[in-house]
Amino acid sequence: MLSDLQLELLNKTIYRIKKNNPFYFERLNVNSEIKSYDDFIKLPFITKDDLRNGYPFGFACADRKDFMRMHMSSGTTGTPIINPMTQNDINQWAEIMARCYKTATVTSEDTIQITPSFGLFNGGFGFHYGAEKIKAFVIPIGPGRSHLQLKFMKELESTVLCAIASYPLRLIEIAEDEGFDFKKNSKLRVGIFGAEVWSNEMRKRIEYIMGIETFDIIGMTETGGVGLGIDCIKHDGIHVWDDHYIVEIIDPVTCEPVEDGIEGEMVVTTLTREGLPLIRYRTRDITKIVSREKCDCGLHTIKVGRIKGRTDDMLKIKGVNFYPSQIESILLQFNELSMEYVIILEDKKGKDSVTLKVERENGFNDDIFDKVYTKLYDFLGFHLNLEIVEKGAIERSQGKAKRVIDLRGK
User: Fold this and answer.
1) Which family does it belong to (predicted)?
2) Looking at 241, 275, 310, which one is the last position of a domain?
């Protein structure tokens, strides 16, 4: 299950921890060299709470003088997690991001418009480092300024758009208001989107309206930023760079490894990170291993499925477990509904109540309402309050889209 290279890099990483961070090394409880997968899975997990408790540098494994920069998680659900990066970490980031671009057919001939932020959030810099590595022309515009985004897209002839997954929805709305036709007014051909769970249906609609091919990219601050993996032109799984990372899938309840093809929580071990090396980090992302064989695209890496949700995103209402992305998949089967929706959870007389607000598009009528309502009931097995609102009625987020508002207990 582990290659010779992975075992070699894993032991180097553990040695680095031993040399630089006695607290971290003692926690691993390692007495000898890791020689097999069975040895490896005896190592303890690291959780987000562990890293939070170690704020700011409790798990860092480099001298402070070697830190070149830092990025951090949003901290919206608790103490933020800081990832200090050495020069080698930045070089590693550029390398894996360059691979991601190449996998998405991006070359030095492309013009890349980077819309994630260039601040504490890791996205913008990762896209930038990779683009420089492949010597493409970069437009580092960052987030917002949607009118300017379209202007640059047209006048600077951008061919690649990098964004968090929900941002293309905002661009599409602005384009409709301006009469901007992506297929006629731009040379856009590739979209690389991530940082959020986005359904296949949303993907199809974005591709149709923008006239592009999209690629799903994954990664997180804790593991070194965006670029952990990306799907290829076959679009049947996300390639993870397994000479830099070990990926496991475990049952989130029992913590036991699951068979390939079975969904569970993704656990990541970094093999080449210095500032914050991670051993068996529980990401909370739900996915599965779809292949370990060589892909028809030519790459031979482990492939995981597109992220379905997070263990802490799963909703349990009236005994039914589901993810917001599953609701999204149903809604986007109807062109008469927009791509904007929000799920509101409330406590009414001691019982959970679910209201689903969705914006309407042209052509929506009572017949469509009945079909949507029936599909939702067939999926959930209980009745929710389906509220159709006018386009623009749901508040847009500046960053990641907020799909669930939980008012229970408030």
Assistant:
1) Belongs to the phenylacetyl-CoA ligase family.
2) 310
Is 90 exceeded by the pLDDT of residue 315? Answer: no
The candidate with the shortest Cα–Cα distance to 269, out of 252, 299, 246, is: 246
Report the alpha-carbon distance of residue 387 to residue 93 in Å, rounded: 44
- Kindly report whether the global pTM for this prediction surpasses the value 0.85: yes
Question: What is the pLDDT averaged over residues 112-123?
Answer: 91
Residues 162 and 290 occupy one common structural domain: yes
Confidence grade of residue 172 (pLDDT, cut at 50, 70, 90): very high
Average pLDDT estimate for 325-339: 90
Whether the CB-CB separation of 263 and 236 falls below 8 Å is answered with no
How far is residue 359's CA from residue 285's CA, in Å, rounded to a whole number?
Answer: 28
Residue 220 confidence (pLDDT):
92
User: How many distinct structural domains can be found in the chain?
Assistant: 2
As a whole number of angstroms, the distance between CA 3 and CA 243 comes to 9
Please state, rounded to an integer, the average pLDDT across all residues of the chain: 93
Tracing tokens 């303890």 back to the chain, one arrives at: 44
Domain residue limits at 147: 86-310
